[in-house]
Every structure is written in C-alpha cells, then in structure tokens.
Amino acid sequence: MAVSAGDTAPDFVLKTTKNETFRLSSFRGRKVVLFFYPADKSPGCTLQVRGLRDIHEDLVELGVEVIGINSASVDSHLNFSECNSLPFQIASDPDNVVRRLYGAYSWGLPGRVTFLVDEQGIVREVFSAILRPLTHVKRVKAWARKG
After folding, report:
1. What are the residue numbers of the active site?
2. Contact 63, 8 (CB under 8 A)
3. Which tens digits make up the pLDDT trace of 31-62?
C-alpha cells in the first residue's frame, strides 16, 4: 500500500553518502523532501538532483531537509553526489525496503516519486514520474515557500 497525502510518514533508517545513518523521525520539527529516483547518473535523475541542488540554499533557509533514496550502493551515490556537487544526502536502500514501504513505484517499476513531509511527520504532498524531473523541483520550492 502506498503512502498518501495525510498519512504519517513511516520512519526508516538508511546509510547515506555522508557515511551517516539517516533516521526520518530525527527530523521532526523540520520539513523534509523525501525523493525516490530510479538511477544514479541517468539523464532525468541528474537533471532532478541538480535542480534540487540549485535551490538547496533556499530550502535550508526555509528549514527544509532534503534526502534522496534509491537502491544503488553508498559508493555509487557518493560518486554521483561528488560529480554533481550535491549538498544534500543520498541514502542507499539496496533491497528497496523503504521504497516498498512508501509504495514509491511508477508503473510497477522503481520510479521518481517525491514525498513532502511537514514538521509533524505528516505527508502533505506526493507526486510521481508523471511529472518531469524539473517539475518535481518547482513543486518542492512552491511547497517549501508556503510556510
């Protein structure tokens, strides 16, 4: 069953590019952009992460944490992050446990799905691969500015 707007965001723990453990519940009190993407270094995913990179400073000023997730290894994510100068963490979900928990699939395949989580841990918006990568970025920025 997929997580929908209005649901409490399920907690999880994953290893990240900063060689840290990311626990979603530790960010209560802050907004969180949780985005699942299909593959490191694919054209669409690169466009999306660069778009988020370019608005990251604005998001931080608005109290928003950004975390990307896919099934590649931490080493793959580290390389992808370094190549694109990403200021936010990418988490490794090698067995797609968190992806399945959130139902972050498009047409039955691991897809591009973004969850916008408020300060209380409630999912406020969910949007998927139907939108182009930069549309995800525009929607994230609009949501963060809503206050």
Report:
1. 45
2. no
3. 999 999 999 988 888 999 999 999 999 999 99
